[in-house]
Structures are given as structure tokens and as C-alpha cells.
Amino acid sequence: MSGKILIIEDEKKIARFMELELMHEGYEVDSFRSGEQGLESFANNDYDLVLLDIMLPEMSGMEVCSRVREQSDIPIIMVTAKDSVPEKVKGLDYGADDYVTKPFDIEELLARIRAQLRRFDTKDKEVLKIDNLVMETERHVVKRDGEEIELTKKEYDLLEYLLKNQDIVVSREQLLREVWGYDYTGETNIVDVYIRYLRSKIDDPFENKLIQTVRGVGYVLREE
Q1: Do 100 and 174 share a structural domain?
Q2: 10-residue averages of pLDDT along the chain (224 residues)
Q3: C-alpha to C-alpha distance for 212 and 224, rounded to whole angstroms
Q4: What is the C-alpha to C-alpha distance for residues 67 and 57, in angstroms, rounded to an integer?
Q5: Would you say the C-alpha torsion 165, 169, 174, 179 has a positive or negative sign?
Q6: Could you give the CA distance from residue 29 to residue 187 in angstroms, rounded to a whole number?
Q7: C-beta of residue 104 within 8 angstroms of C-beta of residue 123
Q8: Is the separation of the CB atoms in 8 and 35 below 8 Å?
Q9: Same domain as 107, residue 9
Q10: pLDDT computed for residue 40 by the predictor
Q11: Residues contacting 34, CB < 8 A, separation 6+
Q12: CATH of the domain at 74
């Protein structure tokens, strides 16, 4: 089994040991000593699993776990010397999928990694697609022509709604209601503003334009 694993562990010897063993098993590995570095790498790379220590400098592993979980359902295995039941429960409540205590047997850790990767691989992953634009909703990843596109949360939500309703003309009022929420009280031209933002990222750099304006009605996502 292959995959890309992120290690966030401040004990250099343990981190290096895990890194070498995982690489020997065929995994691609990135390793960081602090939560801040790990989160930055997580934001800029596609990982299949996170190995996370609880006792980290400056930012605790619990906080790192919570912040990763806000962005992704990626498997998280906590690796720590804290083996009390309350600590394990706390880690699971923060979003971890499994818990391994130090010192650990590397074969057990590898088995737990394989189990989590199998579980995650078999989850239903919704993929929305039109032309060469692809949205992987489980991973919150958007790509066009294989190139990953960074979107803000609202841009992502807007694009997801358009993708789920492709070839259907949706009004500004409908978009306000479904994307911004019933209680939105701001300017109605916010839809036009965000359509422009979205076009600048998913249409302007490409020849085939997908977001179409229907005058007097609204917008539609469709192939030309």
C-alpha cells in the first residue's frame, strides 16, 4: 500500500525512525517538528494520513488535530506517551481516528496505518465534474486541467452549488439563499462580485469558459 504521510513529531529520533520505516514500506513522507510547520505543509500538499504527537512546542497536538479536522476527513493517528483513558478520549473527541502510545511496535503502527488508509479509501467520495474542472468534495480540492486551484470558502461553496446544479440557470436570489444563507442581509451584488472572483480563477486562465451569464435571470455552469 502506498500513500503520502505527514509526520508531526518533535522528538527527532522517533520522527526519523518512523520516517525511515514508512519510506521502507513505500510511503512518501514529510516530517515536521512543530504544529505550525505541519499545518503549513498540510495546507500546501495532498496527504493521505497524519501521524501526530500531542506534546508539541507552542501549539499542542490537540489544536493541530482540531485545525486539520476543520479542513479534511483525512485519517489522523495520534502517537504519544500519554496513555491514560481521559487523554485517549480527548484525542478522539478532537477528531483523531486512532491512538498509539510510545513506546510502540513499528509493526502495530504500520498495521494501524494500513487499516486507516483502507477505511478512508473505501469511503464514498463525491466527485463533481464538468469538462476538465473537477471538485473532490471529501478533500475540498478543486482542479482544472489537472492544475489545483485555491479558493476561499465562499468561492468553494458557490462553485459547489453551481456544479451540483450544472446546466440549470440559477438566479442571484437563489444563490444568495442557498450559498449565503437565509439570514444574509448584505448587498445583493455580492453574488456578482464572487462570480467575478470565481471566473478569475477557474475560467480566465483557460480557453473554454464554464460560468455563463443569462441576462435578467442569473448564472449557469455549462460547457460552451
Answers
A1: no
A2: 87 93 94 94 92 89 90 88 72 82 89 86 72 88 92 92 94 88 65 94 95 94 88
A3: 9
A4: 16
A5: positive
A6: 46
A7: no
A8: yes
A9: yes
A10: 93
A11: 8, 10, 56, 57, 58, 59
A12: 3.40.50.2300
**CA separation (Å) from 131 to 143, 145, 148, 168, 187?**
11, 9, 15, 16, 32
* Same domain flag for 131 and 214: yes
Residue whose C-alpha cell reads 448587498 in the numeric block: 187
Cα(211)–Cα(159) distance, integer angstroms: 10
CA 167, CA 146: separation in Å to the nearest integer? 23
The model's pLDDT over 35-71, given as tens digits with 9 standing for 90+, comes to 999 999 998 888 999 999 988 888 889 999 999 988 8
Amino acid at position 150, single letter:
E
Amino acid at 89: V
Q: Hunting for cell 502517537 — which residue is that? A: 79
Point out which residues pair with 101 in neighbouring strands: 80
Give every CB contact of residue 96 below 8 A, 6+ residues apart in sequence.
52, 65, 76, 77, 78
pLDDT per position as a tens digit, 10-33? 999 999 999 999 999 999 999 999
